[in-house]
Amino acid sequence: MDKPPLSLWVMGISVWLFGFNSWSILLPQAILTLGSTLIVYTLVRRCFPAHSALLGASIFAFAPITVLLARYNNPDPLMIFLMLLAVYAGVRATETSAPRWLMFAAFLLGLGFMAKQLQAFLVLPALVFAFLVFVRMPWRQRIYSLAAAGAIVIGVSLAWPLTVDATPAEQRPFVGGSTNNSVLELTLGYNGIDRVIHQEANPTTALLPQELRGPDSDAGFFRLLNRNYGQEIGWLLAPGVLSTLAILWRLFRRRFNRPQSVLAGVSAIWMITTYGMLSFMGNSFHSYYAASLAPPLALACAIGAFMMFEVRKKAPARIYLVVALLLSAICSYAMWGLGVALPLELGTVILVVVLLSAALLTAPAPWPHLEQVAGAAAVCGLLVGPVATAIITAGTPQYGSNPLTGSVTRSENTLSHFLRDAKTGAPAWVTGLALGHAPNAAVAETIMAADPACTWGAATYPGQTAARFQLATGRAILPLGGFAALDPSPRLEQFQEWVELGRVCYLVEQPAQLEVPGNSGELMAIQAWVRETFSPQDIDGTTVYRLAP
């Protein structure tokens, strides 16, 4: 595995209680997402009106990426739940000047690291900012409290990695994704710096269609609105960014009361940090990373709605609101044009409704409550797109390593079409890497009938294919080269020893994967040794080597 184990432990407890099936795996994800929604509501409701809290909770719950990961077994739902709990504790610490709440927030962020490593720390700048600026205690005490909290974050975060790295290599599994079998190296390298900075092109990307590769990175302010990622989070990105700017201006002018200022400051800095990171990080970007933006986006939009529904007597505030609605309407309409499942005609109607609402808000209304009605119509219009996409997402089964929200895009040169084709086996190497190849019936029967004394019924590659073999046969399958066939594990000498001891019954060859540049040298050496040492068998079109006597 290339992630810490906390989310796996949670799913494992569910499996222990209810048995091994898709429902038991996904139950914790759904419960955690519902819990996160409740925390978003509670955070906003503590210092803003109920309609703002309901709006914030709805934006988070119906963000298509939130719905996707609520029914998918990634670590993100647990990480987001722990981040939101940490925000609640951090806000309480700032409001009450109680360091114990800050220590609890630090402990929760340490657990968040145990779910998905450094990604959980995207909320840290916001919590530190709010505590430094708004807590009522001497500056020396503020620094001491933050230092103690930092020590807790580091201690909890490093407890498991240091335990793993201190365990002799021969007594533990290889740390997937690392180059030297170290969790610390994995944290700082593959899951850290390598994700943030722009890398030289991976040789594997040369096999991608040119239209998907492009001449350069797609990093930039508009990355989350493009045709590959827009359906995940782009619907309300414009109102989220514009609300954040309005929050910062109002904080600067000291127009919030103290509890409102604390939450508003956390929401704005969290939104800026996450949006900036996702927009400008390197090319190792997966669409579901957008889940990290859903909580601060929901909080910022909720506070923005509160400001919108306030009585606006000054012309500059009204002008800003109208411009914000115009930009939000255009952004939402652009998202309508991405997927094939949403009718463009309905998108046009919603665009007109929001634009009319904006027009009604350009000047003080001649009739009572007209402004409230226009504002509500604009908000509801902007919500239709993400809710509709979330419904489509909830009705679409997901499997593989790169789930997507919504429907396939109208443009054919996108990730959604590429992965849709991969589900049919074209190209075969992408199917094996992202989705996994299932064994045909004859191969599955052969593996199931293998000697029970074998630790592994078979060995194959990459990891997703090994997983599908294991699910299909009920036998343990050895994934050569780890998840992406890049890990130097197992070593050739180790594999030869296992074969000599009769611990591996078969090796199932995957020709398409062998053609991919950058495969682990150990994997290629193992494959070459097996070809030289054992005779191949053709089992219904699949090359299989019998390794056990």
Walk me through this protein's architecture.
The protein is mainly alpha-helical and 549 residues long. Helix content is 61%, strand content 3%. It has 24 helices and five strands. The strands form two sheets. A three-stranded antiparallel beta sheet has the order 3-5-4. It has a two-stranded parallel sheet with strand order 1-2. The radius of gyration is 26 Å and the shape is globular.
Strand content: under 5%
User: Between the first and last Cα atoms, what is the distance in angstroms?
Assistant: 31 Å
Into which percent range does the helicity of residues fall? 55-70%
User: Quick check: average pLDDT?
Assistant: 91
**Structural class estimated from helices and strands:** mainly alpha
For the secondary structure, the number of strands is 5
Largest sheet: 3 strands, antiparallel
Concise synopsis of the structure shown:
The chain is mainly α. Helix content is 61%, strand content 3%. The chain is built from 24 helices and five strands.
Blueprint of the fold:
Blueprint: H1 6-18, H2 22-45, H3 50-62, H4 64-70, H5 76-96, H6 99-116, H7 124-134, H8 139-166, H9 183-196, H10 210-213, H11 230-233, H12 237-252, H13 258-280, H14 294-309, H15 315-336, H16 344-360, H17 370-394, H18 415-422, H19 428-435, H20 441-448, E1 458-460, H21 463-473, E2 477-479, H22 492-500, E3 506-508, H23 511-514, H24 521-533, E4 536-539, E5 542-546
Helix pairs in contact: 1-2, 2-3, 2-4, 2-5, 2-14, 3-14, 4-17, 5-6, 5-7, 5-13, 6-8, 7-13, 12-13, 12-14, 12-15, 13-14, 15-16, 16-17
